[in-house]
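Students often ask why we bother predicting the structure of a whole assembly rather than each chain alone. The short answer is interfaces. A chain on its own may look different once its partners are present, and contacts between molecules only exist in the joint model. In this exercise we take two input lines together and write out one structure for the complete complex. Read the inputs first and try to guess which parts will touch.
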Amino acid sequence: RKEVEQDPGPFNVPEGATVAFNCTYSNSASQSFFWYRQDCRKEPKLLMSVYSSGNEDGRFTAQLNRASQYISLLIRDSKLSDSATYLCVVKGRQTDKLIFGTGTRLQVFP
Amino acid sequence: GAGVSQSPRYKVAKRGQDVALRCDPISGHVSLFWYQQALGQGPEFLTYFQNEAQLDKSGLPSDRFFAERPEGSVSTLKIQRTQQEDSAVYLCASSWPTQGSLNEKLFFGSGTQLSVL
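Now the answer. The structure tokens for the assembled complex follow.
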């Protein structure tokens, strides 16, 4: 079983739709959580950190459920430019390495 | 430089050949990471340096893989006797660790796409 699991998708949604991605992690000692975005044939880039209380950045909302060991990302009012792969990322307590999920591919169509 | 620089951008190797991939991190970044990304997969951790010290090499798939960062800046990932299963994009990332902060942002290079024939 992979340490970080995501539904690979693809999620095909129309512009303006709301879409949600979930991610589960297996190591209960995990300390920090992030969502990264990766465009086709490009490098991953940090989208947002995920805080225990939940956090929002514009149209993006991230939630963390430590008891169930899952992380979510909600995108409201989807734009064509949101089309990308969204990577769920987890960091352990005693390590600096980030563990990436497989990624969930989002395709927003007109 | 302005960002993490990796070279070469593309590398084609014959099976059995040795290759060396270079990473120039952002100036002043203490931490440097190597990841391997196969097509359709997320990046898989290979190894991690803090300055010149290799603190974690648990992700290196075999003893054919070797990484170094002798002066705490530029790093080289070497793969000996390449195999077809080594074909992937090799990503380098650097960061300035901020202890106690959740904003641990990795800056990735564009990667080296390795194809082993």
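Check your guess against this: The CA atoms of residues 39 and 88 of chain B lie 7 Å apart.
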